[in-house]
Structure formats: structure tokens, C-alpha cells
């Protein structure tokens, strides 16, 4: 009985082996699947060389072209006026910005003027007797002398004898002393040098003003200036009077400016050159940050493509007989997103958009758009 069982197991094992071996042979003889060639569709462009305008981007903040830092040369109490000395306050040209109390100093000026008047009056009898020919003009000067007005200029002396006599009496020195005092008296009132707006106020009415103290800042809001630093390689391209397009950071506003000045020296540290751009607009404010586009030069027989299409070895992909190939180009200018190339022949088909994993010999198919028209 045991022998029958062992014989049956052996027969089953042999049969299973034969079945498994046959299955392996059948699978080995199956034809291998043929891989389909993958053809990538790419966006292409045909090269047409033209004149490319190279635009240099730059940025900076606006400052008023005409600005004055207000300092006091005298000392006294800041007197109140009808217009408050506050930031944002507008003033017309010649209008008083600050009045410092000068009552004490004014008295000393009047005293000096009175002394000058007395000195001239004291020599009038001598002039009548010894200088009859010049007496009328000094008499006229004395009669026009007004202590409440600016001291008039002394009569012109026509002879050395008259000059020695007048100078010897100390009248000339007294006159210039009075003029010096009057000049200082005028500094107790600070006037607006031009129509503008106060941007900073460091004192208030009633406070003590000291000599040399900064009182505020005053600007002309009609013209602003932007300082930009550019590479020294563009120094020869910048010209005074060039029109510049300006935009704000949000790209919502556009302004037009002009290059007003170009610095004649290159910064030794940064190797940049500074240019100044004037811009006028009622909506602009000092400190506003703008971006400028300066027209540097026109590059002839060139093309402009995305920077991502140019390799580190200055090569670009071209399409030739449905295969990708590489061509060496000459870059002449790089911007943040674009590059200007030369030495790419007209009619060359290049990639318009980068292809991931692209290589020379890769099979590609140019993408074509079809325009559908309705039959009439």
C-alpha cells in the first residue's frame, strides 16, 4: 500500500514538472513588445535678426531737486505767526517761515543808526565852510535819513580831500558797522527762498532758538530727482537729456523723466557710475521708490530670447530635421529675464520655450496652431 502511494506522488510530481517546463518554454518564445518612440511637441520660433533696443533697468527713491535745511544764525524766542510752522504747511516765495524775537537787538541797531546820524550832523558846519561844493549832497543825505528804514548808501566822495575828511571823522566805519548790524537783524526773519512745502519742523512757537540750531527742512515739490547707480560699462551710453520711463513698484503708474546729470567719475568701491533723473508730476512725493528703464543703445542684427534658453556654454537648442541640435551664440546683453544674442543666422528654427531633459538628437515635433474659419 505504501509503495502505491509513493508511486502516485512521484507520477504527480513528474507531471507538474513537465507542465511547468512547458509553460516556461511558451513564455520564452513570446515576441518582446516594441517600445514606441516618444516625440515631444515643442514651441519653436524662426529667427529674424533685427535692431534690438537695449534697456537698462535701475531703481532708486525720489528726493526734491530743490531743498533747504533751515538753520538759525541768531538766538531768541520763536514768535508765533498766522501760519503754523508744521510739516506739510505750504509757503509762497518770500513768505516768512520763522520770526525770532529781535526787540533787544533792534534797539542796539537803532542806537547805532542814531550815532551815525549824529556824527554826520556834527560835520555839517565844517562842510558848509570848507567844502561848499559837496555840502548840498550831504545835506540831502541827512534829510533823507530815516531811522525806521534801511540806512541809505553814503554819498559818493569825489575828491581825496573830501574822502580824508569824512573818513577821519569815523563816519565810514560807523556806516559799515550799522550795515553789519542791519544785515544780522534781517536774519531774525527767515523767508521761503521759493514756493514749496515744509517737510520737517524741529521747533514750535515759543521755544528758544539757538544759533546754529536746525529748525526744519523745506522743499520744492514741483521737481524731483532720482539717483541711480549703473555699471561703468554703460558710462559712454548715457546722455544728458535722454528720456527715461519710470514706474512704481506696483506697475500701476507710469512717469516720464529725463537724465539731467551724469557723474564724471566712477565709484572705486562698486565700479558704478551715478546718473540723475529729473521727473515732474503732481502725484509724486519725496521718498517714493521708482524703477527706471534707461535706453542704452541699439544692437543691430540681434535677437532677444529668454535667459533660460541659453546654456552656460553659450549654446542654444535649434530644430533641424525634427531633431534637436545645439548652436553657439554670442550674448551681448543680459537682463533679469532676457538675453540679447548675435551670430544666429536668419531662418534658424530655435526653441521658444525650454524643454525639460532636452538633449542633442532628441526627436521633437514643432507645435502648430490651426486657425478655424467658418464657411460662408
From TrEMBL:
Domain Multidrug resistance protein MdtA-like barrel-sandwich hybrid, first and last residues per copy: 66-215
Protein name according to UniProt: Multidrug efflux pump subunit AcrA (Membrane-fusion protein)
Gene Ontology CC annotations of this record: efflux pump complex
InterPro entries cross-referenced by the UniProt entry: MdtA-like_BSH
Domain of life: Bacteria
Listed PANTHER family: HLYD FAMILY OF SECRETION PROTEINS (PTHR30469:SF15), MULTIDRUG RESISTANCE PROTEIN MDTA (PTHR30469)
GO molecular function list: efflux transmembrane transporter activity
Amino acid at each position: 500500500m505504501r509503495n502505491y502511494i509513493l508511486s502516485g506522488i512521484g507520477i504527480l510530481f513528474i507531471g507538474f514538472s513537465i507542465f511547468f517546463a512547458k509553460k516556461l518554454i511558451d513564455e520564452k518564445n513570446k515576441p518582446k513588445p516594441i517600445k514606441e518612440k516618444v516625440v515631444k511637441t515643442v514651441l519653436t520660433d524662426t529667427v529674424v535678426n533685427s535692431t534690438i533696443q537695449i534697456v537698462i533697468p535701475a531703481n532708486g527713491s525720489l528726493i526734491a531737486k530743490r531743498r533747504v535745511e533751515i538753520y538759525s544764525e541768531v538766538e531768541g524766542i520763536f514768535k508765533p505767526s498766522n501760519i503754523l510752522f508744521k510739516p506739510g504747511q505750504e509757503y509762497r516765495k518770500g513768505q516768512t517761515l520763522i520770526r525770532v524775537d529781535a526787540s533787544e537787538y533792534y534797539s542796539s541797531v537803532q542806537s547805532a543808526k542814531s550815532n551815525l546820524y549824529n556824527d554826520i550832523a556834527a560835520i555839517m558846519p565844517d562842510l558848509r565852510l570848507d567844502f561848499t561844493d559837496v555840502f548840498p549832497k550831504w545835506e540831502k543825505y541827512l534829510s533823507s535819513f530815516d531811522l525806521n528804514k534801511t540806512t541809505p548808501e553814503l554819498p559818493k566822495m569825489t575828491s581825496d580831500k573830501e574822502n580824508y575828511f569824512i573818513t577821519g571823522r569815523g563816519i565810514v566805519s560807523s556806516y559799515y558797522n550799522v550795515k553789519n548790524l542791519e544785515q544780522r537783524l534781517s536774519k531774525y526773519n527767515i523767508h521761503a527762498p521759493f514756493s514749496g512745502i515744509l517737510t520737517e519742523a524741529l521747533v514750535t512757537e515759543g521755544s528758544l532758538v539757538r544759533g546754529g540750531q536746525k529748525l526744519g527742512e523745506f522743499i520744492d515739490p514741483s521737481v524731483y530727482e532720482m539717483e541711480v547707480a549703473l555699471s561703468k560699462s554703460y558710462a559712454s551710453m548715457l546722455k544728458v537729456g535722454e528720456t527715461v520711463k519710470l514706474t512704481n513698484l506696483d506697475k500701476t503708474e507710469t512717469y516720464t523723466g529725463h537724465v539731467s546729470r551724469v557723474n564724471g567719475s566712477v565709484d572705486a568701491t562698486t565700479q558704478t557710475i551715478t546718473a540723475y533723473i529729473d521727473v515732474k508730476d503732481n502725484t509724486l512725493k519725496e521718498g517714493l521708490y521708482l524703477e527706471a528703464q534707461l535706453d542704452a543703445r541699439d544692437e543691430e542684427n540681434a535677437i532677444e530670447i529668454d535667459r533660460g534658453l541659453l546654456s552656460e556654454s553659450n549654446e542654444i537648442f535649434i530644430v533641424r530635421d525634427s531633431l534637436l541640435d545645439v548652436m553657439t551664440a554670442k550674448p551681448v546683453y543680459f537682463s533679469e529675464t532676457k538675453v540679447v544674442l548675435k551670430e544666429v543666422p536668419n531662418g534658424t528654427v530655435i526653441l521658444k520655450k525650454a524643454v525639460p531633459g532636452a538633449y542633442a538628437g532628441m526627436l521633437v515635433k514643432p507645435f502648430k496652431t490651426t486657425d478655424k474659419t467658418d464657411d460662408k
